[in-house]
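[job 0412] stage=fold_complex status=start
inputs:
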Amino acid sequence: MSFILTAVLVLGSIGLVLGLVLYAVSRRFKVEEDPRVGQILELLPAANCGGCGFPGCAAFAEACVKQDSMDGLKCSACKREVMQKVAAIAGHEIELGTEQVAVVRCSGSCANRASLRRYDGAQSCAIANMMNGGETDCFYGCLGCGDCVSVCTFDAIKMDPETGLPVVDQEKCTACGKCAKACPRNVIELRNRNKMDRRVYVSCVNKDKGPVAKKACDVSCIGCGKCVKACAFEAITLENNLAYIDPEKCRLCRKCVDECPQHSILAVNFPPKREEAAVEEPAVEAQAPVNSVEQQSAE
Amino acid sequence: MKTFKIGGVHPEPNKLTADRKIETLALPQQAVFPLSQHIGAPAVPCVQKGDVVRVGTRIAEPGGFMSAAIHSSVSGKVAKIDTVVDASGLRKPAIFIDVEGDEWEPEIDRSDKLVLQTHKTREEILECIKNAGIVGMGGACFPTHVKLCPPKECTIDTLIINAVECEPFLTADHRLILECPDQIIIGIKIILKALGVDRAVIGIEANKPDAIELMRSKTAMVSGIEVVPLMMKYPQGGEKQLIEAVTGRQVPPPPALPANVGCVVQNVGTVYAIYEAVMKNKPLIERVVTVTGKSVKNPCNLKVRMGTPVSQLIEYAGGMPEDTGKLVSGGPMMGRPLLDETAPVVKGTSGVLMIPENEAARHEERNCIRCTKCVQACPMGLEPYLLASASKAGDWECAEENWIMNCIECGCCQSTCPSRRPLLDWVRLAKNRVGGIIRARNAKN
Amino acid sequence: MAQKLIISTSPHIHCGDTIERNMKWVIWALMPALMASIYVFGVGALIVTATSVLSCIFFEWFITRFILKRPSTIGDLSAVITGLLLAFNLPSNLPLYMIVVGALVAIGIGKMAFGGLGNNPFNPALVGRVFLLISFPAKMTSWPVPAGLTASYIDAQTGATPLNLIGQIAGGNTAAADQLPGLGDLFMGNTGGCIGEVSALMLLIGLVVLLCSKVITWHIPVSILATVTVLTGTMWLINPVLYVNPLYHLLSGGLMLGAIFMATDYVTSPMTFKGMIWYGIGIGFLTVVIRCFGSYPEGMSFAILIMNAVTPLINNWCKPKRFGESQK
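[job 0412] stage=fold_complex status=done
writing structure:
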């Protein structure tokens, strides 16, 4: 009996002493942390994607509290309401920009863009891009090695094995920008979602002269300028044989889509046009023959 | 026999054309001159569409201090200034000349007479080399007039002539030594004068005993030039490895240069071009190219005018074999893959190699089994498996700490890896990124 | 032309080496020792080896296909080698079920749990062997005496091995010295012990095979054997009564097998020559310490496993001599 008592007393007192020591140390070396950081951290998606430019959500939360305003602080991975709450906790005003989505500006699928050579080196777009122009005669378009896919932390972009191009899942995409940064050819761009996620864009980044671009790919932009003339809102500019639609100015009227002789401009998430409603169209938008990469993911 | 101490591999030599005399290839119908055939700034065209040119007419000026002039190798009319896909695999600006006849600039001495002496001063020699647009013809294409003007703080005591040709298949340098030894000796003397040095060493790999014999007999009576046979090992022809084998000195890592250990290395083809430039007023307009491959019907060594499309060389050699998997400009270890036959011959094209599909196609990549063969093979004492892993993970700091900038991209590591890992692909990526980081860091300071 | 041109960058050729080529040479190098052990221990050696190899192959196939759901990796032959090496570390009368358990631990825990070939920090065969040693100490520490080709498998007669005797001598029992087999017997393999470790001659032939086929370099085996020679030699010179001649140490127990085949395992050994030498010195040192001052007669397995754990540290500290380093 006395054994048990001794054991309990000895071990109990050791535990008590050590507990007091731990308590004293925790008080002595306590790091004062603003409780707001913890509150903000709770709201953040904890994906640590780095899209905000900070090394992880914890660092972003700290920056929100430390800085005087929300300038330069944007977490694209969380919803707008969440960002408003974060700003409220931090005690700052916030101006919410438009929601964006990653857009793959290339329709050079296996069907549209003839593959003339074989690349069997390391499967990395960064490497393939450094070495030479690529397997096709379009030296600007998607290489298909999937750097964008491996870098996405939201599982929002996948390689389509049939087309050889990446496909963005617009539900999952948070426009953190990692895929756009990873693409060595700047094929992926963050563009405004607009109402109902509609967007119109030139699905090409080829800067070669018209004949060269046309020979390389059936749906390349040849820099003819018809879209520029057609746009009533001056949203389209032509530079280096490539047309570009400014997402801020574009009013989604889709006149350019019809004008483009190469069917290089895509309009995503629009209902079928009234004239075509009578015809049986299999959930394909605009007159783009095989560019329905984006549309299929949107359906 | 002398050799470099660290690493190295022994690929099959496959010198199929070692006994083929150099043949002169016919003129092309259109010659294409990429403006960037050398290390440094691209040249700037000084002709335009419609201009009539002769052989030797300057068509592009150097684009800066580290640059080189380009001369037409044909006579005719400038067709256009457009782009061409060259050995870099990218579209590069180039001057296209439609060939008409074969008229040469009058000051060029076209005779075969051996010119033994020159009265040119050191500065005049360098000026002559610069005006001739000579760049390193071993493949690296470093502007020669810059190389022969080392930084003032470096004292040069040895000129090393690189006649090693360690790459399998290539025999251009070998044939040049056998067929034009006297011109090469004179060229060496010219360079010695330009450098103000009195010692030259010709390094030749032991698999060329006829060249060693010939050079030894030619230099027997010449003081200051010696021939050093070197053990057959790749990459013996690498500048740093050659310097170590011949002098025992190791060039420190970049930004150090061979000049820092008192040596200047010149390829034997460059030496020949220097002879022609200084003694014959002939700019760099043609070179010897080995056209070869295991399945090639008629492998040969051709004297080719710069700008000739590679398709013409392939046609002369019997056409591209059916089983060709890769078309390579240069040798199989460090050559550049050509995207198609339209690429032109440029100053650095030492060979056109057609590799059969079953040899060239890469096997599937597997896990690293840590066999250390890449570490044993690396001639620069690096750990390729580690550098490749760091590169894959984006750990540029680790790559820099492990001396990645010392890599000479010789390919020894990837060619020995039993797991068929694309080590050099990843290392190249890391070198590119780390190089950028270092440049940014230096710019800030 | 028939196919498209390939545009990946240099090097465009390969020396032709593959993982399988290296594994095949290791298997060939192990064959002389296997032949010798069948000659010495009889059919038991063959049964244990076959069971071990087949179990290892089966477990790797099962785990990769059904648990990891990937293509099977048994084609790279590393499971065969793990099976052979595990068997070589077992007595020839070990019951079948123990061998199968050992194979499961070796492949499942020693290799596949870490991600398969190339990812394991410890030598899988040794992981299996040590697991068996701790789980079935009695069966794992009773070795059959040499009884020739006709010896029985399960009912083999057991006896003291040379290492047992060396241990007794060190403990003060000088009478054991008379029972020690001659150096000739130890060299040829006419002695008790685990299957693969008895014939030093056959193992050395295996070493020559590995060196000539460029599968391994001399650094690890030589540094281990040299360290053991130096340490046991010093001890023998100090006290020849208690500590036997270093040759007895070299030719007894699993030293040869470990130095040539187990310590040189690619995945778990250092990546530079400098590192390999230190690794070998460490193994030699630990083996001698455990053999002479520890309670186990054989220290090789533990020594190798401990140095396997140190290998990443060795890789960090021992960098190769870089070109231009001395002139920097």
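[job 0412] summary: Chain C touches chain A at residues 3-9 (CB under 8 Å).
[job 0412] exit 0
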